[in-house]
């Protein structure tokens, strides 16, 4: 029986982690994540989980501890944000290259400089090519549900990859919303018993982790890793189906909203997708065929499925809450452009950068973009391919 | 009230305004409703002006941005009336509740409230001093808001106040807050 509560995103994910009861957690505080690990360490102190907590002196050490504990044979978690994720960078690749199914909630926050603690996707976008799986979450319910599914995906014997579960800092992590919890027993059964492949502590079967591989086999190793990535989407869908049976809540590789018969559309991640859906409804009520696609499995990115879902549109805007500096476009735009490239008939594609450093994304911003798309669909003319919106002039 | 009710709180750091928004969200969960409670995060320090928001709806709440057009405005610290336009964006039939010893008519004039807007006052700080011994006006403000909006019954609110204070505080503090909530409900005046 589901329990309905009003809680913050951080609290919801901390409860998901408690229900999973992992073996080891390495934690280092950073806003806006700190509150999640504080709550989780409270569950440890109260004896509600059997997790061994390692209090480390930095996020580099947190991720290093996770790598060690996971290779040893444990089900392992940590959580971070912003600079913390940036400091883990070196070890993120070691976790994925060593195929360790570590689960890490990432409470998305802007990167320094200038120092800013608010919601922004720059942190996780910087880690998008590290070989970690990434699930993104619109609200507290999705963050909770994704956190539970993350264990099954990462630990699947065909996958064995680390996974990040992303939610917007403050906007979701610190806002109270109505959500439904599963029963502890249901979550326990859903994630099942953890079994590490080749645990270091299995001394009857000694193994070696982190070997040196030079020109002879490094490339084969990388190719094998790339092949694993291609299997992730299938597992994500299988786990989503099982989760739907349990919870009644449906998940996919991405969510489409009024997209099938749409002529113009938005692609947007996380909390701003919710605000945009209300505006899509408003445009629909005026007879304008607007729709939306919200990525969920962002890494590995389901290029083929995404391209298929978007190719029929006349005009499409990708909204990015991060920029990919280097004279190009926002990160999500680059992926959407890639997914549409194979099609001869495809929408005019523009990019808007919004909400950096926690700048509010308001309904008027979605309206502004949809109005521009209406114009592009009618005239076929694009005035500017990339633009910052909601910015002071 | 309407399908969706949007509330904006104005207070100062340290008055329990954010807690009040949280307690209200929790109390409004009943009847399968959807709720949100979130503060505007700035530099957090005692005495600094802050805003917090609630949304309560029979439908799923997807909007994740500040409330711009509140139907209810709760002013936990009346000194803010001199520095902030608390009526900004309020709907034309909005309800205002202000923590003050002043007469509702005087506050109505100060707010320059429209003919369909309603203005209520409650001396929440005095009630808090008498019931809790500290100027923490959030509990009586919740009581007043409960009466004006009819979002929840007083009994339901009292149960939620008890629940949210119950974990951390002594029986004396809990009883004081329950009494303060009840008095806020009873003593709110319309002008």
Written overview of the protein:
Chain A has 393 residues and is an alpha/beta fold. Chain A folds into two domains: 3-247, Thiamin diphosphate (ThDP)-binding fold, Pyr/PP domains (Rossmann fold, 3-Layer(aba) Sandwich), CATH 3.40.50.970; 254-388, Rossmann fold. Chain A has helices at residues 9-20, 34-45, 59-72, 82-87, 89-97, 122-126, 140-155, 184-191, 218-247, 271-285, 303-310, 331-340, 363-379; strands spanning 3-8, 24-27, 52-55, 76-77, 103-108, 133-136, 163-168, 176-181, 254-257, 264-267, 290-295, 297-299, 315-320, 348-353, 386-388. In chain A, helix 10 links the parallel strand 10 and strand 11. The model of chain A has no long low-confidence stretch (mean pLDDT 97). Chain B is an alpha/beta fold. Chain B has a single domain (4-190), classed as Pyruvate-ferredoxin Oxidoreductase, domain 3. In chain B, 36% of the residues lie in helices and 21% in strands. In chain B, helix 2 (104-111) links the parallel strand 5 (95-99) and strand 6 (118-122). Chain B starts with a strand and ends with a strand. The model of chain B has no long low-confidence stretch (mean pLDDT 93). Classes of the chains: A alpha/beta (393), B alpha/beta (191). Strand 8 of chain A pairs antiparallel with strand 2 of chain B.
Gist of the model:
The complex is a heterodimer of chains A (393) and B (191). With 393 residues, chain A is α/β, with parallel strands linked by helices.
């Amino acid at each position: 029986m589901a329990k309905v509560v009003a809680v913050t995103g951080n609290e919801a994910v901390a409860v998901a982690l408690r229900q999973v009861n992992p073996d080891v957690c390495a934690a280092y505080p950073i806003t806006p994540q700190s509150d999640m690990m504080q709550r989780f360490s409270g569950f440890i102190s109260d004896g509600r989980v059997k997790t061994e907590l390692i209090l480390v002196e930095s996020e580099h050490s947190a991720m290093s501890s996770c790598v060690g504990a996971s290779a040893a044979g444990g089900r392992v978690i940590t959580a971070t944000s912003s600079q913390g994720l940036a400091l883990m960078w070196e070890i993120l690749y070691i976790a994925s290259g060593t195929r360790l199914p570590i689960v890490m909630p990432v409470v998305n926050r802007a990167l320094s400089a200038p120092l800013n603690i608010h919601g922004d996707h720059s942190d996780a976008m910087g880690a998008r090519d590290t070989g970690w799986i990434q699930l993104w979450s619109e609200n507290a319910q999705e963050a909770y549900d994704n956190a539970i599914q993350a264990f099954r995906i990462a630990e699947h014997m065909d996958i064995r990859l680390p996974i990040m579960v992303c939610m917007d800092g403050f906007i979701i992590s610190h806002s109270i919303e109505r959500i439904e919890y599963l029963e502890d027993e249901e979550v326990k059964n859903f994630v099942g018993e953890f079994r590490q492949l080749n645990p270091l502590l299995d001394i009857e079967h000694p193994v070696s982790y982190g070997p040196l591989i030079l020109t002879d086999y490094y490339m084969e190793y990388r190719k094998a890793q790339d092949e694993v990535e291609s299997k992730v989407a299938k597992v994500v869908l299988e786990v989503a189906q099982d989760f739907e049976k349990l919870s009644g809540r449906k998940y996919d590789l991405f969510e489409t909203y009024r997209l099938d018969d749409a002529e113009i559309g938005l692609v947007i991640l996380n909390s701003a997708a919710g605000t945009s859906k209300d505006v899509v409804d408003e445009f629909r009520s005026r007879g304008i065929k607007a729709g939306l696609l919200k990525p969920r499995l962002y890494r590995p990115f389901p290029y083929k499925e995404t391209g298929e879902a978007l190719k029929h549109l006349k005009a499409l805007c990708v909204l990015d809450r991060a920029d990919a500096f280097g004279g190009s476009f926002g990160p999500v735009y680059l992926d959407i452009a890639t997914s549409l490239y194979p099609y001869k008939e495809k929408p005019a594609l523009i990019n808007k950068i919004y909400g950096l450093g926690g700048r509010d994304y308001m309904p008027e911003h979605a309206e502004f973009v949809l109005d521009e798309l209406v114009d592009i669909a009618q005239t076929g003319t694009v005035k500017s391919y990339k633009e910052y919106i909601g910015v002071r002039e | 009230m309407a399908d969706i009710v949007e509330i904006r709180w104005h207070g100062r750091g340290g008055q329990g305004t954010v807690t009040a928004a949280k307690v209200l969200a929790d109390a409004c969960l009943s009847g399968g409703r959807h709720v949100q409670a979130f503060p505007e995060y700035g530099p957090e320090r005692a005495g600094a002006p802050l805003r917090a928001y609630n949304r309560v709806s029979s439908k799923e709440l997807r909007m994740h941005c500040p409330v711009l057009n509140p139907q209810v405005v709760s002013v936990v610290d009346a000194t803010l009336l001199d520095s902030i336009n608390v009526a900004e964006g309020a709907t034309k039939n909005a309800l205002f509740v202000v923590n003050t010893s002043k007469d509702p008519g005087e506050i109505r004039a100060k707010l320059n409230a429209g003919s369909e807007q309603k203005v209520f006052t409650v001396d929440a700080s005095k009630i808090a001093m008498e019931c809790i011994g500290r100027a923490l006006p959030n509990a009586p403000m919740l009581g007043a808001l409960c009466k004006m909006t009819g979002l929840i019954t007083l009994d339901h609110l009292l149960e939620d106040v008890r629940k949210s204070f119950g974990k951390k505080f002594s029986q004396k503090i809990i009883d004081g807050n329950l009494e303060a909530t009840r008095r806020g409900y009873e003593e709110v005046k319309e002008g």
